[in-house]
Structures are given as structure tokens and as C-alpha cells.
Amino acid sequence: MTSSPPAALSARTLIHGFGGLEVLHGVSLEVSLGEVVAVTGPSGSGKSTLLHLLGGLDRPQSGEIWWGGERADTLDTQARARRRAASVGLVFQHHYLLPDLDVLSNLQVPGLLLRRDVTAAARTLLDRVGLAGRERAMPEQLSGGERQRVALARALVTGPAIVLADEPTGSLDRANAVAVMDLLLSLAHDSGTGVLLVTHDDALAARTDRQLHLLDGRFVDRVPALG
Description:
Pfam families: ABC_tran (PF00005). By secondary structure, the protein is α/β, with parallel strands linked by helices.
């Protein structure tokens, strides 16, 4: 019998805190290849902490994190950075494009970290996000929505198994937020990339394949209404 491929991302009983205050209390989750999952919850519930741990930007105090079939939290800092460059795409509320590099060069940066030429993939993705012909534009020449589309393309250029997106539409107007969400969903489903999306926007979260609600460092069935 053929075994199933490993999940794009899995986490098991993550515990983490700061200064003696526990922020995450045994959180577990799994994201399949090609699945888009939203994490919602009020401010202070632990969403950003969770995403930093899952992206290998910090190490959990307890628990396990797996990127594909490889455990990530036990890797040393350099090995984790190399593995993240190959396996994980990161998208944030701010685009974080390098201002002195044009659009195409910004997309080539992840390939440089892996000593891989990603130019062909970068051009294909720019076409997919509606920016063909803008390869030599500088970030300052782009609108906010265009910059975020470039950031999304950059996160996918190395063909990662998982993309972690922290409020990627939070700084955009409604029309651009919907357009970026459309792209995120279509690119993830078409490429088979798993996506974990942190958002405060319930309408956008409802469009994902599955929603997880984080409250006080634990996943709950739903986030209770205030008042």
C-alpha cells in the first residue's frame, strides 16, 4: 500500500512564552499540501508567536515542528535558515521588498540563498500575479497592492511546501485585499503549496479550506463574541 505524503507543515503540542508568561499552551496543527488554512483570533491570543515558531524564526520551549517530513525545531540556526529558504515562504502585512532592487531582482533573492537560478519561475509568477512587463520597476513605482503581489510571488518562487502569511492583506484597501486573497488561494491550490494564513478578516478567512480559532494560546471551536 502506498503511504501518504507528509503534511506540508505540522506542529505538535507547542508550548512557548516570554518572561515566565506562557503564551501558547500545547498547540497542535497540521496543514496538508495544497490546503489553505486560516488562523483567526483576537489580538494577544498568540497568533504572531505561533507563526514565528512555525516559520523557524524562534524555537519553541517545548513541542515539535515539522516541515514536510523533516523536523525543523531541532536544527541549529544556520541549518534551519537554509531549510526555511527551501521549504517555507513568508508573507507579512508589510511587503518587505528591498527598495534598491527592481521587481525581478527581489524575486531572485531567495534563489541566491539556495544557489539556485529562479529567474524562469520568477517570470512565470509575475505573469500569474498580473505584473508581466514590470520586472524592472522599482518598489517605489508600484502601488500597495502591486507590492504585496510581488511579495506573494517572492514567497512562492522556490516552490516551498508551505507559505506562512501574517495579515498579508491588512495594509490594503478592500479591492486589493480581495485580489491578493484570490491570488493566494489560486496559486496555493494550483501549485499544491500549503498555506497557513493569520488574519483578522473573517470574510477572507471564510474563503479558506479550513479555519482554526486561537484564544488565549489554545485552539477553540470558535472565538466567543465580546460583551
